[in-house]
Structures are given as structure tokens and as C-alpha cells.
Specification:
79% helix; mainly alpha; globular
Length: 110
Amino acid sequence: MALQPLFILYVVIVFSFIVTSVFMFKPKGDERLHLIFFWLAVALSMLVTFINATSLAPEMTVRIIAAWCGLLFSAVGIIVRMVAGKTNTVANVLVMVSTLYGVAGYLLLN
């Protein structure tokens, strides 16, 4: 049985997500580095959500809407980060939840 290319892409994204999460929660370091990894995590969550939502059949409207709703966690995380103005654990966790929601949705719904 051959692996599907989309599944391989998901494995690469999950690996990138793990690396990003480690550096996002690194306790000491440059604030710019935390900011770069935060926005990288946001980009990964958007990519996962996009792949999840567009890989579903068009007649699965409810599932497609549920897939796009995963971005709400990232949106709230971005707002929390902007309001705090610095590294914020709640914002980091919300972005991580958004990515995990997208990955779980893809694995369970497809």
C-alpha cells in the first residue's frame, strides 16, 4: 500500500509543528525568535486548515464549515498576542489547538 502524497505532507507539517512548538515555548531567548515561531505556527495552522477543508467533497458542507472553524482558535490567539504585546502562553496554546484541530479533523473526517 503506497502512502498518499497528502498524508506525507501532513506528516511533514506535524513534524514542523512539533519543532515550532518546542521553540515557541522555549523559556529563555530573544523575543523576536518567539515572534517568528509564533507566526510560523499560525501559518502552519492555516495550511492545515486549508488542506483539511479543501480535501473534503463539496457536498460535505457541514464538515467543511467545521474544518474552517478551526481557524477561530488561531484568530483568538493572534488577538491575545497583540493585546499582550509579548510572548503569551495562552496565545501559543490557542495556535497549537488550531493546528491540532486541523490535523485531527483531517485524520478523522477523511
